[in-house]
Write a structure and sequence with these properties.
The protein has 314 residues and is an alpha/beta fold. The protein has one domain: Metallo-beta-lactamase, Chain A. It has six helices and 14 strands. The strands form two sheets. Strands 6-5-4-3-2-1-14 form a seven-stranded mixed β-sheet. Strand 5, helix 3 and strand 6 form a beta-alpha-beta unit. It is globular and about 50 Å long. Bound molecules: zinc ion (2 copies).
Length: 314
């Protein structure tokens, strides 16, 4: 199976191709025993016949840019949604090859709390004296969009992206993309907290309701979580809870800790699968335990731990 090629037939029928370019959180993990799940930080893309949406600009966005170079795809407007400004979500952005193509049209979206524009906020971090140039100086045509909880934007081909506030230090946004009845939720970085059914939990559930794919931020196990309370992330088991509650059709656990080795991730992935199979609580319309087999986790399966290079058609 071709790993990154466009499935043009499915896309012509209104499908979306979701590709995982960066699956790590906090910082890149370029170590041999992490390469199975990938070493790049957050970046997911969704492409369809008329459009391309990118979620976050971690180091994974560089591989997407290289792919676009190979395909010569600079004629399609690129809509990049940044969840928040923590470094693991933006470090690749300034080096994204599209930034240096005059013909590229890039729309940049991001949170703008307290009346400060997203452009001002981003340039404070990605610009002198921390980097020699800022996004405002690159050759590409960049259009800036301020985002806040409840905002939505129309994209080419009838696609729609909606934003919801994340629960994360310094704030941020979660995004939901919808196109021709298919949908994905990009849920980096967000701490649901231990009190399930909290007001925020209910809001998240409504935001993610009936999505085809829930990309869930969960670098911890339940046992580890108490040491990291307040850091702004959730744990794996909460991904299962939420996917069941919001009736997501697929659950992908993302934002793996940089120090989590492949073996540990593989083991956790198997445990999570077995728990899903044993749990009758994954509700009607959503994931059903019988639809998934242990050891057969893969893109297109029902629940899996994000691996760099994974892709699927929604
Ligand atoms: Zn992060
Ligand atoms: Zn963060």
């Amino acid at each position: 199976m071709e790993k990154h090629g466009r499935e043009s037939e499915s896309l012509e029928k209104g499908g979306m191709k979701v590709e995982l370019w960066g699956t790590r959180g906090s910082c890149p993990a370029p170590f041999p025993n992490r390469m199975g799940y990938g070493g790049n930080t957050s970046c997911i893309s969704a492409s369809w016949e008329e459009g391309l949406a990118v979620f976050d600009g971690g180091t994974g966005i560089l591989a997407l840019g290289q792919q676009m170079e190979r395909e010569g795809r600079w004629d399609v407007p690129i809509h990049i949604f940044i969840g928040h400004l923590h470094l693991d979500h933006i470090t690749g952005l300034i080096l994204f090859p599209g930034m240096f193509r005059k013909e590229a049209r890039i729309h940049l979206y991001g949170p703008s709390p307290d009346g400060e524009s997203f452009q001002t906020r981003l340039n404070k971090v990605l610009g002198p004296p921390y980097w020699p140039v800022s996004v405002s100086q690159v050759p590409a045509r960049v259009v800036w969009h301020d985002g806040a909880d409840g905002d939505s934007w129309e994209l080419p081909g009838g696609a729609l992206v909606r934003a919801m506030a994340s629960n994360h230090p310094n704030g941020g946004l979660l995004y939901r993309l919808e196109k021709d009845g298919r949908s994905m939720v990009y849920g980096m970085d967000c701490e649901l907290g231990e009190e399930n059914r909290s007001e925020y939990w209910e809001r998240y559930k409504d935001f993610a309701r009936d999505c085809d794919l829930l990309l869930f931020d969960a670098p911890y196990t339940r046992e580890e979580y108490p040491c990291f309370r307040g850091f702004g992330h959730s744990f794996w088991e909460q991904g299962l809870e939420m996917a069941g509650a919001c009736r997501a059709r697929r659950l992908c656990i993302c934002h793996h800790n940089w120090d989590r080795e492949d073996e540990a991730l593989k083991k956790a992935e198997m445990e999570l699968t077995q728990r899903l199979e044993g749990a009758g609580r994954i509700g009607p319309g959503g994931m059903k335990p019988g639809e998934m087999k242990s050891g057969e986790l893969k893109p297109g399966g029902k629940v899996w731990f994000a691996k760099e290079g994974d892709w699927m058609i929604l």
